[in-house]
Amino acid sequence: MALWMEAGSEPKTEGEKADLAAIAAIKESAALEFKEKGNQYVKMGKKHYSDAIDCYTRALNQKALNNSDHSTILANRAHVKLLLGNYKHALIDAEAAIALSPTNIKAHYRATKAAFALDRLTEASFFCQAGLKQDPHNGELKLIMKQIDSRQSERRKREIEVAKSVAAAKNLVSAITNRGLRLGKAMHQELSGKRKPMLDKDNVLHWPVVFLYAEVMSSDLIEDFCETDMLSVHLDMMFSESCPPLEWDQERAYTREAVELYYETGSGVPLSKKEVLQYLLEGTTDPQTESLFVDEDAKEDSNQGIDEVRGSVKYVKASEKQTLLDVLSHPQLVIPGIPVFYVVSKKSSFYKEFKTRNWSAP
């Protein structure tokens, strides 16, 4: 009997040929039946999608249909997988359907939809254009082609924006590094609104600077403190006679002639170039873009400078005649994201506590 013939052997008798023809007909009939049953399950709704996939798979497993019918069933199964959100496997089925029948427009459309859902825009565009060559007036393909073009345009714009942000951040890191400054983990971001330093066209750094009133831990933010400005310039503005006294300053101790500025040294660990870049680009790029800006030299310096800046924590008094850059260049200072100064008053009862080191920042 033909049923017991070894695989690959050819039928020799008319009886064997008849048996094989009958088996092929049975398989073809079964495959078509499974296909129709699968179509019915699709129409019955989402609860029956898994049954539809099972029927289409059974139809394919019969291996009794021509390439065109086989392609149709694969495209149908891709359709159900799209409905279920299984885009990766939908794309596999749709590609296989196209390989069997390049004129299968539904297969092209479903491959396009799956690739688009996976954000594989180059593939989506390829499948869509191939389908439009077969059917230039296909409305569904035209519509999704517009969506692909729109998303590609948005991506190009985003890539341009990212490239600009990356270039600006790299220039900023170079400026910080060339000045011998060390940037550490960002602190007090709730006070600074996550503002970052910026480099102007004349290669001058501008910093957001936090003034912390150590006595009560309230704060002021100077959004644009030029590195060449002396500290006295901003103190003159903040504590001028025309400015109202601080609300919490019951002793009226915080006057222009009484305030002093201190900064913290011996704490913090300097970030690597890579980490500084990540900090500066925070909020401007997607995590996936990190590979665009991580240079080899940025990978190699992750521990440079740590030992030389570690030490006991000290509060160093800043001279009002110093520029911001003078202060930030202190060899034991690690800038906590942005510069932070502690403001105290010689007239305040808190002053002695601060000076005798009986106080530490919370």
From TrEMBL:
Q: Name one GO cellular component term.
A: cytosol
**What protein am I looking at?**
Cns1/TTC4 wheel domain-containing protein
Q: What's a Gene Ontology MF term here?
A: Hsp90 protein binding
Could you tell me which SUPFAM superfamilies the record lists for this protein? TPR-like
- Stretches assigned to the Cns1/TTC4 wheel domain: 200-268
Annotated coiled-coil positions are none
Supply the SMART domains for this chain: TPR (SM00028)
User: Which Pfam families does the entry link to?
Assistant: Wheel
Record's keyword terms, sorted = Repeat, TPR repeat
Q: Which family does it belong to?
A: Belongs to the TTC4 family.
At the highest ranks, the source species' classification is:
Eukaryota, Viridiplantae, Streptophyta, Embryophyta, Tracheophyta
Example of a GO biological process term = protein folding
